[in-house]
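During the second half of the funding period, the structural biology subgroup turned its attention to how the target accommodates small molecules. The most pressing case was fructose -6-phosphate, which had performed well in the primary screen but for which no bound structure existed. We therefore specified the complex as follows and requested a full 3D prediction, including the ligand pose.
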Amino acid sequence: MCGIVAFTGTVDARSILLGGLARLEYRGYDSAGLALLNPKTGLIDIIKKVKQPGRGMVEVLREAVPENSASAGDDSFFVATGIGHTRWATHGVPSVANAHPHGDCTGEIAVVHNGIVENHTALREELLARGHEFRSQTDTEVVAHLVEEYYVACNEDLVEAVRAAVARLSGSFALAIAHAKHPKELVVARNDSPLVLGVTDYGAIAASDTPAIIEHTRDVVYLGDRHLAILRADGSYECQDPAGIVYVPTTVRVEHSLEDAERGGFPDFMLKEIYEQPRVLRDTIAGRFCAANKCEQAHLNFDELSLTQEELRTIERVVIVACGTSYHAGLIGAELMEAWARVPVSVEVASEFCYRNPIVNSHTLVVAISQSGETADTLEAVRLARRAGAHVLGITNVVGSRITLEANTTIFIKAHLEISVAATKSFLAQVALLTLLAMHLGCVRNQLAADKMAAIFSELLALPEKLESMLADVNSIKEAAEKCKDASTMLFIGRGVGATTCYEGALKLKEISYLHAEAFAAGEIKHGPLALIDPSANTPVVALATQSATYEKMLANIEEVIARGAHVVVLATEGDERIAKLALQGIDVIYIPKVPECLSPILASVPLQLFARYIAVARNCDVDQPRNLAKSVTVV
Ligand code: F6R
């Protein structure tokens, strides 16, 4: 979603703000802007630009920022304080007028905002009635005018003015506010939208996400809901709760490196992140297995779970809530939990769950999966589940994210920073973690024998190496992608966890290549989708036919689509001779190493990620920043 950077200090704010915004570009944006406190004029310079085709937003903005924002040729001053923003339109079209920062009527105040001010219409009417003039269609602009009013009412106390303004807002917001009369400080505030702070020897910085900060400091503070903070140019900050009580916040050490936030030699983040997956798998599995000893059977270590074993045994139902790719991981987790723990599991799209009075009570374990930990729909589902008395287990990748504060318990996947909008390594880590959790539940509920669990675990341990061998030779994937890149639509078919793997494969293809794709449980194709197949229609079919209980049925489905003239790409197990014979008839085959069916999604989803990426590249799409999408969807 939108990105915020705010800095005040003893070095030039312009380069810090532009650098920070560049690191947030991965979030997606349609416009960007800066507000710089100009020490020469005592005013705020606001510079805003709309995205231009084929050009990086920050590059365009950088050109527009004067070397010296007051008087050209005068090198003797620098801009100490400023705020910056990359916008992803919600209220109001992408335009310069709607780009942030937004100002008040006096021109002394500038505001950048992430989130949605839900009561902006009422506030705007109220402010208009009192004579304020609005220049944009955004919800954000009301904040600037509210601060303007309260600044007068609070005797020019900026912090009090912001507190009073924020108290009037409903909805989600992360805000950074600059005032021309306070050139050595900034006020930031948040509710339901992420905001991180840090200090350095040369100033204080805040941003909507850590990549904009870690170049300057790794020790960060995640600001609480409706809390505000004052950043000072001397490199200090002060956090206050909604009542204005000053407190010393907990500092969190950010472990991911700046290099994680860069491409490391790969042409795009998505490819880099796909190739990081063996390491992510190793990190996710590490430390979970406890071998049998004299006193205990082999078991898994899930110390983070705040539920006792007795409580895990008495759970009557599990409900998994998530969106997009995380929802697909949930579908795979559900199959494994039902199979191993013999507990009913339903998987719900979070945006539906919230609005349909679901049956959830204190005997329900709600598992909320979110890579970012900030997805608004998933957070709403968490709140509903908590109100209904359920125990909520959050599974996320981001320390300090909203979900970690709202769930009863959190387990972190070990995907590390994921920058590409299309989720890849976080999906794999989610699936691996859910597999472990399903095994753990199975053991605790006495439904999965310890030796069977140990056998599955040793197969899991072997996966990173198998994945490395797959990633070492991707020619068959490239060739298949080349043949399918001009398809009019594509069908993905599989059965069991293979069908879910296909849902994820089709989503990846759609979101980054803009090629329409749909996935089906293969048994369903004769109930409708088969009508799409026609030799002249260029509708290739991707079929997942690795070794499984339904392998024979998949072969029959493959024959069905071949007979109707579709070009077929099959994912098969290495050494499968029947598929090798079909390859002689002109189908494409991508082989994956032998793996038990329950673990097949972990290996099979990787060629589908690469397949989508190669097609997207062949179609000249921006792989990391697909149109209309954002990495973290903090609006409902
Ligand atoms: C697709 C993708 C999205 C996210 C979805 C949920 O590649 O990344 O579908 O999975 O927006 O995001 P999180 O997991 O952050 O809640």
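Two results from this model are relevant to the next phase. The first helix runs from residue 13 to 24. Confidence is low (pLDDT under 50) at residues 69-76.
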